[in-house]
Each structure stands twice: as structure tokens, then as C-alpha cells.
UniProtKB/TrEMBL annotation:
Subcellular location: Secreted
Chief location of this protein within or outside the cell: secreted
GO terms of biological process kind: lipid catabolic process
Alphabetized UniProt keyword annotations: Glycoprotein, Hydrolase, Lipid degradation, Lipid metabolism, Secreted, Signal
Full protein name: GDSL lipase/esterase
Natural source organism: Arabidopsis suecica (Swedish thale-cress)
């Protein structure tokens, strides 16, 4: 599950949409580049496979993405000094990464306690990547937390239960799964605070994806969504308009007439309306910790020829 905050950030700053690195041919990376891959993990695939967590979707980990970034630098920025200058002036968005490590473990029916054992390993991997980028000159990082997966259409369907005590009475989300997402955020923030003390010249901003999204489920009408917006816009069957194995885009699965009324697009992704509101909550507050300081932002950003990202 990945969130295209990088696209909304570029739009907010008046920059072109950030092109993907993988699969791009003759793309212009002067204003930024996106190394994200759908389904990517923080941990190496071989490590997860050794633990019985098998998945066919991708073999791209955070380490693979970081290596691709380092290998691409000569073509993006030229000399080592120019590249260091570019990295020093870049906003580096670290993910969201790590959620798929947990997803794939849930998909193969690993127990919650075993999945919890992955959490410190995922966070250490994210921390190590940030540390490496700091060594390369990185000074501004935006590091997202986990989503409230207890509100995910996929998990609401796959972990449906008749025990109503497992559901949040206000939102209808699964409380124990949301607690898992909260725990990830708490541990990640603690690690980011440790890094911030080690590198006081660096700006490390935590993007609270959990509360930015959960707020939409708490007060859906305030944001123009339907009441109890837990169903998928694009899906079929079941109480959440979702059936495992029936993918959005196939002949047997139709989308809703007005996606802007829905938080969830399909089983695992949000609608553009939901993503946009999340981005606004992070870029303009209150879901960035510490908040962004846009006082230096000017119309010059929109027309500048600078290669700063």
C-alpha cells in the first residue's frame, strides 16, 4: 500500500509531477524523482522468505530503492559535489515503507505476536537508510508512519467477526489492527527522535499518516464523505463491497458513480479525495511533526529553474 504524497507535495509547491525512476525512458529528473514501487518492502525479500513470508508481487526492498538512487546520481546531478549539493537541498520522502512487510505476513496467516517481531526490524531498516542519506548530505526528511489498517477494506473483510467488541463503535474499524498501526508509529517516532538528537543540523519530520487518515473515518461528513465510509468504491460483494480475488478493473468489478464520497477506492488503496485530504493535513498541519515552515515559500518556487527538489 503506497501513498502518492510526493505527487501532492510537488503540486503544492508548483513543481511538475515527480516521474517514476523505474520504467521511465528519457524522463526529466531535474525537479525530482520517485523510486517507489508498488508492493515494495522495507526488509529484504530473502529475509522475509526465510521466515515463511512468501509473496510474488515484487523483490524490491528499501535497500534496492536506495541502491538505485545511488547508482542514478551521475545521470541526475553529474559530479559528486553537485550531487551532494542537490541532496542537501532536497526534501527526501521516506516511504510510506514497511506496511507491506506486515501485509504479506498477515496474508500468509502469521500470528499477531510473530508479526510484531518484524516491527523493530522494519524501523531499524528505515533508520539505517536515513542515516546513510544523511551521510550523503541529506538534511530534510519526511518520514511517514503506518495507516490505520483496521479501517482497510481488505482487513475488515478478511478479519470480519461477529464479536462487536472488536470494532470501534464510532468508526466501525477493527481496534486491534489499528492498535498495531499506532504501535508502529510510536516506535518509529522514538527512533526518529533519537536520530534528531544525533544529527541536530538535520530536519526530520514525521508524517502522521495514521491520524491524517483516521480523522476522515471519525468525521466523514465534515470532509464530504458518506456516513461510515468503510466500503470500497470499486469492488463487489460482501458488507464492504469487496471480495478477495476480484480486482478493480476487471469486467466483473464496477466502480461507484462518485468516488469523492468514498475514502477507499478498492481493497487496499484510498480514493484521490482521501489522499488529497491526507496530504493537506500533512503539508498544512496538523499531521506533520514538527510542522512544515512554509515562510520561505514564494512564487519564485513555481517559476524557478533550480534543480532543488
Amino acid at each position: 500500500m503506497f501513498f502518492s504524497l510526493v505527487l501532492f507535495t510537488a503540486e503544492f509547491l508548483g513543481l511538475p509531477l515527480v516521474p517514476p525512476f523505474y520504467g521511465s525512458h528519457n524522463a526529466n529528473f531535474e525537479k525530482g524523482v520517485n523510486f517507489a514501487v508498488g508492493g515494495a518492502t522495507a526488509l529484504e525479500r530473502s529475509f522475509l522468505e526465510d521466515r515463511g513470508i512468501h509473496f510474488p508481487y515484487t523483490n524490491v526492498s528499501l535497500g534496492v530503492q536506495l541502491n538505485s538512487f545511488k547508482e542514478s546520481l551521475p545521470s541526475i546531478c553529474g559530479s559528486p559535489s553537485d550531487c551532494r549539493d542537490m541532496i542537501e537541498n532536497a526534501l527526501i520522502l521516506m516511504g510510506e515503507i514497511g506496511g507491506n512487510d506486515y501485509n504479506y505476513a498477515f496474508f500468509v496467516d502469521k500470528g499477531i505476536e510473530e508479526i510484531k517481531e518484524l516491527m523493530p526490524l522494519v524501523i531499524t531498516t528505515i533508520s539505517s537508510a536515513i542515516t546513510e542519506l544523511i551521510g550523503m548530505g541529506g538534511r530534510t526528511f519526511l518520514v511517514p508512519g503506518e495507516f490505520p489498517v483496521g479501517c482497510s477494506v481488505f482487513y475488515l473483510t478478511s478479519h470480519q467477526t461477529s464479536n462487536m467488541e472488536e470494532y470501534d463503535p464510532l468508526t466501525g474499524c477493527l481496534k486491534w489492527l489499528n492498535k498495531f498501526g499506532e504501535n508502529h508509529g510510536e516506535q518509529l517516532r522514538a527512533e526518529l527522535n533519537r536520530l534528531q538528537k544525533l544529527y541536530p543540523h538535520v530536519n526530520i519530520i514525521y508524517a502522521d499518516y495514521y491520524n491524517a487518515l483516521f480523522h476522515l473515518y471519525q468525521e466523514p461528513a465534515k470532509f464530504g464523505f458518506m456516513n461510515r465510509p468503510l466500503s470500497a468504491c470499486c469492488g463487489s460483494g460482501g458488507p464492504y463491497n469487496y471480495t478477495v480475488g476480484r480486482k478493480c478493473g476487471t469486467d466483473i468489478v464496477e466502480s461507484c458513480d462518485d468516488p469523492s464520497k468514498y475514502v477507499a477506492w478498492d481493497g487496499v488503496h484510498m480514493t484521490e479525495a482521501a489522499y488529497r485530504l491526507m496530504a493537506e493535513g500533512i503539508l498544512n498541519g496538523p499531521y506533520a511533526i514538527p510542522p512544515f515552515d512554509w515562510s520561505c515559500r514564494s512564487s519564485g518556487i513555481k517559476n524557478s529553474g533550480s534543480s532543488d527538489t
